[in-house]
Amino acid sequence: MDQNKINIAILLGDPSGIGPELVSKLLSEDVINKANIVVIGEKNILEGGDKITNFSNDLKLVNDFDEINFQNGNKFFLDITKGKNHDYKLSECSKEAGESVLSALNLALELAQENKIHAINFAPFNKTSLKLGGNKYSDELHLMAKKLKIDNFFCEFNVIDNFWTARVTSHIPIKEVSLHIKKENILKPIKLIHEAMKLNGIKNPRVAVQALNPHAEFGTEEKDEIIPAIEEAKKIGINADGPLPCDTSFITAYKNKNHDCIVGMYHDALQSGLKAFGFDRGVTVQGGLPVPITTPAHGTAFDIAGKNQANLEPTLNSFKIALTMAENKNKQ
Questions:
Q1: Which residues contact 9 (CB under 8 A, 6 or more apart)?
Q2: What percent of the chain stands above pLDDT 70?
């Protein structure tokens, strides 16, 4: 095994979406050679992606991780077909597609627990297919956290141009958000994004914190909970700032480059700004897990699947973040 490179598992994503063609393109990029690569999935799915892109990837085929010898190369395909060779139809959700994704993901997580894999980069999953295939969790992050036996705080980070976001609450009704705006709840994502960004190479991350109320003044949460959380973060050495009014926070923090990341109180306060500035470049990082796991922020794009129109940039950026985080984690 090449001790100078980290091992990254790449997952093909939903076989009926743009994932296989994105992975096909990704494998031809020069940055791939900075790591030991293990693509995990069914052989015919990647071959389908290669037919769409007209790329040919020099992957050594194995049926078990223990067959891999990185002294003989840095790109391997771990085939989980096991004789089924299912023909997946493009642009359709299915139980079989979900099962394929879950099989590859579960294997990658097992290898990560055994420290054989140091990061996971996956092409887009389809939540409907995952549910049909047997996923009982609300999203892939909760599935991963359960498989990795995580009991600490975890949350999703969304990234554009290496500007990161985290949120105190996520997929809950707006009327319930204020119930969760407590000092201890706000501190958790502040601490987590601070550590994650350090792992991504930012030595002293400048952490902005959004307000909850308009202009940070039409309510009591800022004075009672958000400002005390910011002050507590400062006491423990975090370069925290705010609360920034939501309507100008992305101009201040991202556009004017005054901060490296931002923590918000609820989903749309962050996602609206993030997607307005860079929906086509977004990356999702699964925060709070013991292994870096990243993916492009967009979905399976059934409308363009098979047309070789998928934009590689978010997938490429997600791979680069996984690589950087894993390399830095390896140095700790």
A1: 38, 39, 40, 108, 111, 112, 117, 119, 120, 121
A2: 99
